[in-house]
Amino acid sequence: MKRTASLVFAFFFALSALMSAHGGVPHIRGSVVSATDTAIVVKTTAGATQTLAIDSSTKVLRGKAKGSLQDVKVGDRVVVHVMKHADGLMEEEIDLPAIVAKKAK
Which residue in 34, 21, 36 sits closest to 83, CA to CA? Predict the structure, then answer.
């Protein structure tokens, strides 16, 4: 029984490490401070400011729906998946929260 529990724990520990980062580069979580056609600035949950390059290949998701770079607005909470680029970090994907429909009263 202890062996099974240990194997299950090891599996989930390894899986969580794989899901938390792509290629050794962590996800960046925070709020958008500014956004242009070539970069966005994110204030991380740790309070640091991170400038990240974007281009036409950067994917944007709002919930599970496909979005566009024009959907990224100042104040939006984001999770950014980054990849290493020659000049620093390049955004591969920006995840925005899904839009929740308001209930009619």
Answer: 21
Residues forming a β-bridge with 29 = 79
At the second CATH level, the architecture of 25-105 is Beta Barrel (2.40)
The CA distance from 28 to 89, in Å, is 11
Q: Residue 4: which residues within 8 A CB-CB, separation 6 or more?
A: none
pLDDT (0 to 100) of residue 78: 93
Looking at the DSSP assignment, which residues form a beta bridge with residue 86?
A: none
26-78 pLDDT tens trace: 788 999 999 998 899 999 999 999 998 888 888 998 888 898 888 899 999 99
Residue 104 predicted with pLDDT over 70: no
pTM higher than 0.85, yes or no?
no
The ranges assigned to domains in the chain are: 25-105
